[in-house]
Specification:
With about 120 residues, this protein is mainly beta. The chain has strands at about 5, 10, 20-25, 35-40, 45-50, 60, 70-75, 80-85, 90-100, 110, 115-120. The strands form 2 sheets. Strands 2, 4, 5, 6, 9, 10 and 11 form a 7-stranded mixed β-sheet that branches. A 4-stranded antiparallel β-sheet has the order 1-3-8-7, with no helix packed on it. The relative contact order is 0.32. The mean pLDDT is about 95.
Length: about 120
């Protein structure tokens, strides 16, 4: 088991940047998929970005490509999400999740953090 704790959410203006951090309580390198989901008010939770256990393969939702960058440091059991050019549509609670399968399907992720709020407003 691993506990995941997110941080870095904040209120920013459009065009701004944030760097989210997810720290695991145990070795995260054993999880084939780890990364970020988000849930906006009144909407379903959706995948944002994922990274594999070795850190050499990534996935991005179309809506965040070329704006967000995911990375990880297995030695620190930490996953990052650098978010640039933020838009009001990025407003959501961002969740870190880990799963042993190589997948983007939310149901296959076994461990979830409590989430961190990102708000993008003028």
């Amino acid at each position: 088991q691993v506990q995941l704790v997110e941080s870095g959410g904040d209120l920013v203006q459009p065009g701004g940047s944030l760097n989210l951090t997810c720290v695991g309580s145990a070795d995260i390198s054993e999880y084939n998929s780890i990364g970020w989901f988000r849930q906006a008010p009144g909407k379903e939770r959706e995948v944002v970005s994922l990274i594999n256990k070795y850190g050499d393969q990534t996935y991005y939702a179309d809506s965040v490509k070329r704006r967000f960058t995911i990375s990880k440091d297995n030695a620190k059991n930490t996953v990052y999400l650098q978010m640039n050019s933020l838009e009001p549509e990025d407003t959501a609670i961002y969740y870190c999740a880990a799963g042993r399968r190589r997948t983007t399907y939310m149901g296959d992720f076994d461990y979830w953090g409590q989430g961190t709020q990102v708000t993008v407003v003028t």
